[in-house]
Design goal:
Largest sheet: none
Order of helices and strands: HHHHHHHH
Oligomer: single chain
Helix content: over 70%
C-alpha cells in the first residue's frame, strides 16, 4: 500500500515543488496531535489551497492505524515529556491510553481527559514539535526525489 502510494506520488504531473509542498503538509497533519481529524484536515486543506489530493493524502496516511499510529503516539509523548520536564514513564493508566487508542469510544476520551496533565499535554506538545520537524524534513527530501524522477523520465 505504501509503495503504491509513493509510486503514484512520483507520477503526478504537478510541478515538483507543489507536490512536495502538498506531501509535506500531509506529513505535518500525520504527526499532528489531532487524532481522528487527519483525513478531514487534509481534505479541507487540499480544497482550500488546491493541493494535489494524492500528494496530501500520501503524506497524511504515513500515520496509519496498522503500522505507524502507536509509534508516532509514543514518540509524540516522549518528545513532549522531555520538553515539558515530565517524567518519561507514564502514569499506570496513561500508557494503556496511548498504546491502545479507542478513538471512537466516549470512555476512552473520558479517561484521556482524566489524565490530561500527565498524558495529553506532553502528547500535544510533542506531536506539534514532531509535525513541524518532520514536515520540514519531508519537503526537501520529497522535492529531491521528485526532481530526480522527473530527470529520469525526461532522459537528462
Amino acid at each position: 500500500m505504501v509503495r503504491a502510494a509513493l509510486r503514484r506520488l512520483l507520477t503526478l504531473d504537478d510541478p515538483p515543488e507543489r507536490t512536495a509542498l502538498a506531501f509535506s503538509v500531509g506529513v505535518f497533519i500525520a504527526f499532528s496531535p489531532f487524532l481522528g481529524l487527519h483525513t478531514i484536515t487534509a481534505t479541507v486543506l487540499a480544497f482550500a489551497f488546491r493541493f494535489n489530493k494524492v500528494a496530501i493524502y500520501t503524506g497524511t496516511f504515513i500515520n496509519n492505524p496498522f503500522l505507524t499510529l502507536v509509534p508516532i503516539i509514543l514518540a509524540s509523548y516522549a518528545v513532549g515529556a522531555f520538553l515539558t520536564g515530565r517524567p518519561l514513564a507514564l502514569p499506570p493508566g496513561g500508557l494503556e491510553l496511548l498504546r491502545d487508542p479507542h478513538l471512537l469510544t466516549a470512555d476512552y476520551w473520558r479517561a484521556l481527559f482524566a489524565e490530561f496533565w500527565a498524558v495529553l499535554v506532553p502528547f500535544t506538545v510533542g506531536g506539534t514539535v514532531l509535525s513541524v520537524v518532520c514536515s520540514l524534513a519531508a519537503y526537501p527530501v520529497t522535492l529531491k526525489l521528485l526532481r530526480a524522477n522527473q530527470r529520469r523520465k525526461s532522459g537528462v
